[in-house]
Every structure is written in C-alpha cells, then in structure tokens.
Amino acid sequence: MLTGQLLANQQSDPQPWFARQAASTTEDIAIIGGGIASMMTALALLRRGS
Question: CA 45, CA 50: separation in Å to the nearest integer?
Fold first, then answer.
C-alpha cells in the first residue's frame, strides 16, 4: 500500500515548469494525427492563411 502526506505550507508556482516561445513564422506547420479533428484543424489554418 502506498501512503503519503500533503503538507499545508507548500507553495505552488503559478507558472509552468517549461517556457515555450511563440512561433515567429507560420510557414511550416505540422499536424500530427489523421482524424477528423486534425482535418478540421488543417481546414481552419488554411482558411486563416497559415
């Protein structure tokens, strides 16, 4: 059996542990997957001019 304790005085950091920079260009876009959601994402990007 696993047990643990949650300490009440722990402070959480509101920022994520990773920092991604925004894309500077939208010339190359890769969509991973081949389902309906991927197709609709590609269509929305095409309509936006990306």
Answer: 5
Q: How far apart are CA 50 and CA 48, in angstroms?
A: 6
Distance CA 34, CA 41 (A): 11
Helices H / strands E in the chain, number of each = 1, 0
Per-residue pLDDT tens digits for 1-50 = 788 887 776 666 667 677 777 777 767 888 998 899 999 999 998 898 86
Cα–Cα dist 37/17, whole Å: 28
Helix (H, G, I), strand (E, B) or coil at 45: helix
